[in-house]
C-alpha cells in the first residue's frame, strides 16, 4: 500500500465502533506527536492515530500486521530517550483521547484507568477520594499513565513507595500480534505461572500497547515536612542518609549541586534556602506525625552539623513552605532547558553513589573543561542525573556529537560499578548503542526472543531498545 492508501484505511478503521477515533496528517500535528523531549531525532511520522477504544487499537494492530506498517506509541511525549519518536515514516498511536477513569473500588483501593490518563489527573482523583497515588515527578502535569508504565517511571518518592511497577494491579494490552490480554485481573494474589503484566511494564511499547491499567492507591501521608541541608562534601550525602534512616522513614531524599541551584535562583521565582553556600544540597521529606518525630529530626540535624557533614539547613514550617523548598529541586530541569542539556540518567547501588559520581564528574570535567556540568537526582535510590549544558556559541549538532564521545567513558564506569545506563528514562534510541554496558549478551538474546513472541512481524515501536 502507498502512503495515501494507508492513511485512507486508517481513517476507515477509526470510524468504526460507537466512538470514532481520529487520524491527523497536518504537518504541525506530525511534528508535535512524532517527538518527545530529546529533540535529537527529527520526527517524520506518516500519520497520527488517536483511538478511543481498545478494540480500535486491536483493529489498528491487525491492519498493521497485514500491511507491514510500523506503529509507534505516544503518551505525554515527555520521554528522554527517544522511545516515542517516530523518525522513519511510522504511524504514531497517541492515547490522548483514551483519558477516562473507568472504575474505582474504595474497599480494594484500586482505580481502573485508560492509558491516556495524565499522572496528575490520577493523583487528583486519589486525593478527592481520600487516598494517594505516590508516583510523582516534574512532568506529572503532562505525562500519561501508559507512558509511565511503559518506561516504569520512578520519580521523587521511590525511596518510600517504589517505581510505577509496584502500583500496577492489572493491565489490558493489545499485543504486537493483535491479541487483547487482560493481565492479572487486578488480583492481589495470583500465583498461576508467568506474570505477563510485568513484561509490559518497562518494555517501552515494544511488545504491544497498554490500553488500560488498574492502579493501586495508598493512604495519604500526614504532615509532610521538608528539610534542606547544605552539605560539606559529596560523601556526606550518604552520612546524612544513613543517620536519618535509622530513626525516620523518609518519603524522599534528593540532591542537587550548587550549580544546579544557581540556575533555579537565576529565574527569580525561588529564593535560596539559607545564606550559607554549600557545594551540594540534600532535600529530605518525611511525615511529621508527632512532636517526637520533629524532635528526632532536629536532633539528627544537630548531630550532622556537629559531625561536620552539614553546613546549614532549613526545615519547613508549613505546607506552603514545604512546596517552596521542593521548587529548588523540581525547577532544575526547567531552568536549564534553554541551554539544551545533554542528559544521562544513571544509577548504582546507593552505597556506591559518592565514589561513582566523583569518578564520572572527573572524567567529564577532564575531557570537556569548557562545558558546564549540572548534577541532581534521586540519590536516595541511587539514581543520578548528569546534565551537560550546551555553550551558547556551539551548534546543537556539534554539541551532541561531542557529548556522545564521552558516553563510552561514562558507561565504562557504570559497567565497572555494575550500574545502569538508564535508571528511569528507558533505552529508546538514545541508549540503544550502550545497552551492553548494563545487560549481558545472554540477557539481550532473551529480550529479543520475548519481542519475537509478542511482535513476530516487528511492527510495534521498531528500532527501540535494540534493532
From TrEMBL:
PROSITE patterns: FAD_PCMH. It comes from the Bacteria. GO terms for molecular function: (R)-2-hydroxyglutarate dehydrogenase activity; FAD binding; metal ion binding. Keywords: FAD, Flavoprotein, Metal-binding, Oxidoreductase, Zinc. It holds the Pfam family FAD_binding_4. It catalyses: (R)-2-hydroxyglutarate + A = 2-oxoglutarate + AH2. InterPro entries: FAD-bd_oxidored_4_C, FAD-bd_PCMH, FAD-bd_PCMH-like_sf, FAD-bd_PCMH_sub1, FAD-bd_PCMH_sub2, FAD-linked_Oxase-like_C, FAD-oxidored/transferase_4, Oxid_FAD_bind_N. Residues 41-220 form the FAD-binding PCMH-type domain. The keyword Zinc applies. GO terms for biological process: respiratory electron transport chain. SUPFAM superfamilies: FAD-binding/transporter-associated domain-like, FAD-linked oxidases, C-terminal domain. Its cofactor is FAD. Its EC number is 1.1.99.39. Signal peptide: none annotated. It is an enzyme of class 1 (oxidoreductase). Homodimer. Belongs to the FAD-binding oxidoreductase/transferase type 4 family. This is D-2-hydroxyglutarate dehydrogenase. The lineage of its organism: Bacteria, Pseudomonadati, Pseudomonadota, Gammaproteobacteria, Pseudomonadales.
